[in-house]
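Justification of resources, computational component.

The compute hours requested in this renewal are based largely on the per-chain cost of generating structure records like the one below. Each record pairs the submitted sequence with a full structure-token output. That output is archived, and it is also reused by downstream analysis tasks.
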Amino acid sequence: MSGLEVLQALSARNELPPTIILTTFDDDQLVLQGLKAGARGFLLKDVTLEQLVEAVRTVAAGGSLVAPMVTQRLLAGVGRMQNQFTSLEQPDPLTERETEILRLLSGGYSNKEIANSLKVAEGTVKNHVSNILSKLGVRDRTRAVLKALELGIV
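The structure output for this chain reads:
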């Protein structure tokens, strides 16, 4: 099986652990399929050891992490893709701060990086991210960014 097939099989059985896909990013469709199957992280294979360790910690702690370069490619291709994620049709409005954090999420920044940028505690960012997920009716950060793009929020 390919890595994507393993991811899809584990997801179908509800046995998918927090997963990071390490890729050369040759195929945009593969990345989207990985997201749909439940991957919570995407990194390019040229990451440093420190970046990889931080990504593992982030995903293991319940977060999501998409390399900024991968996010840029996804954003560039968002007009060509169709959203098939189940989510609320009319999400609750986001506060200014939630919208600001969602924009930073779409840039691929971690909670820690967002907290440092906004000069707030990382726990505060986690609370805002939780509110964003709830209001958009999605289950993870990646889907929140995709939903926000679909709705024109970011």
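The chain has one domain: 3-151. The longest helix spans residues 122-136.
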